[in-house]
Amino acid sequence: MKISARNQLKGTIVDVVKGATTSHIRIDIGGGIIVTSAITNEAVDELGLAKGKAAIAVIKASDVMVGTE
Q1: pTM of the model as a whole
Q2: Per-residue pLDDT tens for 29-44?
Q3: Of the candidates 22, 56, 57, 26, which has an alpha carbon nearest to the alpha carbon of residue 42?
Q4: Angle (CA) 25 26 32, round 5°
Q5: 3-state DSSP call for residue 27?
Q6: Residue 64 · residue 57 · CB < 8 Å
Q7: Can you tell me the distance from the alpha carbon of 54 to that of 25, in angstroms, rounded to the nearest whole number?
Q8: Taking all residues of the chain, what is their mean pLDDT, rounded to a whole number?
Q9: Do 62 and 34 meet the contact criterion of CB atoms below 8 Å apart?
Q10: Percent of the chain with pLDDT strictly greater than 70
Q11: 3-state class of 68 per DSSP?
C-alpha cells in the first residue's frame, strides 16, 4: 500500500469495539502506546480487522485512519 501520509505507525490490533455505525479500533504500536481510531463498521468488515491482526495507524492532520496490506 502506498499513500502520501508520512505518519504511519505499524502495530497489532488489541481491541475492536463495534457500535451502531462506528467502531473503535485500538492498535498497540509498542512501548506501551495504544492508538485508537474511530472508523465505520463497513470499513472494519472490508479490511477484515480483528484482534491480533497487524495494522497500520495512518495519521494525517487530526484524523487517524487504519490500513492493512
Answers
A1: 0.82
A2: 999 999 999 999 999 9
A3: 22
A4: 170
A5: strand
A6: yes
A7: 12
A8: 92
A9: no
A10: 93
A11: coil
